[in-house]
Amino acid sequence: MLHSLSTYLHKKPRLRLVALLTTPVLWLVIAYLGALAMLLVTAFFTIDSFTGNVIQQFNLGNFHDMLTDAAYKNVVLRTLGIAISVTFLCTVLAIPMAFYMAKIARPKSQKILVALVLTPLWASYLVKIYAWRTMLEPGNGVLDWLLGPIGIHSPGFGGPAIIIGLSYLWLPYMILPIYAGLERLPNNLLDASGDLGAHNFYTFRKVILPLIFPSLVAGSMFTFSLSLGDYITAQIIGGKLQMLGNVVYQNFSINLPFAATIAMIPVSIMALYLYLVRRTGALASM
Amino acid sequence: MQKKRLVSILAVASVAALILAGCSSGSDSASNSGVPKVDMMKKLGAGEGQVNIVAWAGYVENGSTDPNVDWVTGFEKETGCKVNVKNGATSDDMVALMKTGEYDVVSASGDASLRLIYGGDVAPVNTDLIPNYADIFENLKMQQWNSVDGVAYGIPHGRGANLLGYRTDIVKPAPTSWASVFDANSPYKGKITAYDSPIYLADAALYLMNTKPELGIKYPYALDQTQFDAAVEVLKAQKPLIGEYWGDYLKHVASLKSGGTVLGTTWQVNINLAKGEGTKVEGIKPAEGSTGWSDTWMISSKAKNPNCAYLWMNHIASPAANAAVAEWFGEAPSNAKSCALTADKNHCTTFHAADDAYWKDVYYWNTPTETCLDGRTDVKCVPYAEWVKAWSSLRNS
C-alpha cells in the first residue's frame, strides 16, 4: 500500500510537490500574510468616537494623526535608537564570546559553552525582565548595592535600562549565528594571515570580519527586529519611556485602527532593512 | 522567472486581503443614534457550570491573594458555577475585553458602562431575577451610568474615591492636596506616579477647578477646548516629576514597597496590599475632593453562561459578599444591609456609604462626550476619543 503510493508519487513530481507544500503555503498565506493584510486594511478604518467600535470606511485620518503629531516622530526615532544600540551592544559582546567558543576553547568545553549560552532562553522572558527590575532599582537595587561603593550608580528605569535589558535578552540570538560562522572559518586562513605578518586586529578586520559578515547580518536581524517590536521590557524597566510597541499596546484596545497604523511603522522599517541587507548580498551567502 | 514569481506572490497576497476584507465587512455598523436593541433575560435556568468575569483587581477573590479574603469558593460550591476571572487594568481594557464576547460579566466603571451600552456589548438586566437588588441604596439605582431610558443595565456594586497615596516614612509633612503631585519644585521629583489612562486628564481638570477658577470648569468630564488644553498643559508640566505611570496594580504596589514611588494617585486596595507587605503607606482623599468610581455589574450581550452570570450578579450584590468586597477593596458598599456585616463595624461610616454630602466632591468616572455633560449648550466639549489621542501623544512625547 505504502509502496504503491510512493511509486505513484514518484511518477508524478507535481502532485508530490503539491502534497508537500499545501500545508505550509496555506499557513503562510492565511496566518502570516493574512494577518499582515488585515493590519494594512485596518489601518485605513476609523472608530466611533463614543463606543470605540471600528467603522469600516476608508479614511486617512490615522496616517494624518501619526504624521502630524511630533510625539510619534519622537517615539519612532527613540525606538530606532534603542534597536540600533541593542544590536551594536550585542555585536560587540557576541564577537569575542563566539570567537572564544569556536576557536580557542577545547572541543569538550565548546559544547558546554553552547549549552550555557542557550540556558537563559529556557527561563521565561518576564522572569528575566523582573529580575532586571530588581537589579536596576535606583537606590536599593542590586547594582547600586554592588557598585555603589565604587561610585557607579544604576542608570535607573528609562532608555539605558531598556537597552541593557534587551541586549541581555537577545544576546544568544547574536552569539549563535556568529559562532556558526566562525566554526565554518578554516583555521589555516588565520594562520596564513599571521604568517604573512598581519597583526591580530588586522587579521580580524581583513579576514574574519568579511567572512562572518553574513552571520552578523543574520544575528542583527534577530536583535534588531525583536527590539523594534518589544513593549514588555519598556513597560517593566522603561520608567515612563515608551517604544513603538507600547503605542500599539496603549491604543489597540481603544483605537484598533490607529494601533494598526502605528504597527505599520516597524513592519516598513524591517522591510527596508531586509531590502538593504539583500543589496549587500549577505542573504545569498547565508 | 524572477518577475513572474513576484507577480504570483502579489496575486496571492491581494487575494488574501480581499477575502479578509470581505469577511469582516459583514458585521453590523457601529454608528447608531440610539442604543442597539438587545434582549433581556426573561427566566432563570440551570447554571452552565462556569462564568467568565472581567473585573477590577480585588473584586473577585477566591482566597489565593489572602486566605481570609474569599467570597468565591462558597458561591462555586453553592451554585456549581466555576468562576474564571480576568482582571482589567483600565476601563479601556475592560471595554476591549468585553468586545471579544468571551466574557459573561463585567464590573464596569462609569467611563466604560455607557460605551458598553451604546456599543451593544452589554444586555439590559432583568432586576426581578436578582432578589438582592431590592436592598441596593436607592440613590445608586437607575443612574446616568447604569441605565438608559428607564431600563437598568446593571447592578450597582460600590463606590469610592481615587486617593492620594504616599509613603508615610518618606513624604513629610503628609500631603493634603493634589497640588503636591503637580508641584514643579517637589522634593519627590522622579518618585511621583500617576494613573496610566486617558481618564487621568480629569484629575488635572479637578486640580484646575481649584487653582484656576477663571477657566470655569464645573465638571472634570465636561471640558471645552480651552479647558481641555489647560488640563493637557498641567499634565505636560507634571511629566518630568513622574517616575513611572502605573496601569498594572501589582507593579505599582511593588514600586510603593521599594520606594521607587512615594507619592501619587492610588486606590485603597493598593494601599491595603502594600500595607500587608509591611510598607508604611497611607491614602487620603485630599481637600479639593477627588475623581472616583461607581461601578456596575453588567452582563454581556453575547454571554455564553447567562444563568451563572445572573447567579453571580445576585451573589456579589448580597449583603455578605458585598460587605466583603467593599471592605477588601476599600470602598462604600452598595447594599444597605452590608453595613451590618462588615468586620469593621465602622466601615460604612468610614467610607460614607450612606453619607450623600461626602460624595458631593467625588467625581465618578464618566465618558466625556461632545455634548457637554455639565449641561452647557453654548460650547462643544472634547469627546473621549480626543482624550485618548491627547493622552497617547503626552505619553509618547
UniProtKB/TrEMBL annotation, chain A:
GO biological process: transmembrane transport
Keyword NADP annotated: no
Keywords: Cell membrane, Membrane, Transmembrane, Transmembrane helix, Transport
Boundaries of every ABC transmembrane type-1 domain copy: 76-277
Annotated localization: Cell membrane
GO cellular component, as recorded: plasma membrane
Mode of membrane association: Multi-pass membrane protein
Transmembrane segments: 21-47, 75-100, 112-132, 152-171, 207-232, 252-276
Family: Belongs to the binding-protein-dependent transport system permease family. CysTW subfamily.
Stated name of the protein: Unannotated protein
Organism: freshwater metagenome
